[in-house]
Amino acid sequence: MLTRRIIPCLDIKDGRTVKGINFVQLRDAGDPVELAAAYANQGADELVFLDISATAEKRKTLNNLVKKIAARINIPFTVGGGIRSINDVAPLLEAGADKVSVNTSVVEKPELINELAKEFGSQFVVLAIDARKMDNQWIVHTHGGQIPTEKKLFSWAKEAHNRGAGEILFTSMDHDGTKNGFAIDPLQKLNQLLPIPVIASGGAGHPVHFAEAFLSGRADAALAASVFHFGEIKIPELKLFLKSNQIPVRL
Whole domain around residue 236: which residue ranges? Predict the structure, then answer.
C-alpha cells in the first residue's frame, strides 16, 4: 500500500474559512492563513483551498489570499473556485498553487480538462466531483452543490480521466458535515474504475472513518474540514492511529 495522504480543506467564503452540513448551514471556522500554517506545522500532507462562492458569484478566485497562504506553508497546495478558462490558471500558479481543482466549469465545458492537462500536465488537474444519491444513482452537482446535472458520478469520473484529469476529489454531499463516515461503496467503485488517485471527502468524524476510507474504500487520500478546524481530530494523533492500523502515512 502506498503512503496515504491526510488533506485539510479550507472552504472560503468572504475571505473566511467556513464549514456547513450537506453544503448548507455555513458557520465561521477561522482565519484561513492561520489555519493553513497550523496544518502545515501539524504534518498535513497537502492543503486544499476552495473558494466556494466564486462560481455562484461569477468571479475569480481570491488570488491575494492564495498568495498569503502559500507564503506560510511548505506542502502541496490545491486551489479551486471560479476557474473558467486556461487564462484563470496563471495567476493562481504565480500566487503559489501547485494544482487546481475544477468542477462546474468542466461540467459545462469538458474539453477544458484536455486544455489544462495539455498546458500544465495531468498531475496539475484535480477534478472535484460533488455528488448526491438520487433515485439510486450518484448525481453530479455544480455551483457549490446547488444545481443537479445530468452527469453520473462514475461515467463522469471515467470521462475526466480519459480527458487528462490526474486526480479525483469525490465529495458525498449526503455525508458532508455529518461526521458519520465517508461514502465507502462509491469510493470502492471509483478506485476499481480508475488508475488515478481518488481523494475521499465528506463525512469524517472519527479516526476510524479515515481508516475505513483507506482500507475498505481504497482511497489514496482523505480530506476533511470541520474535525480539523474545531480541534476534534488532531493530525499527528490521527496519523499515529492510522500507522497503528498498518496504514502507511508520513509522520
Answer: 5-244
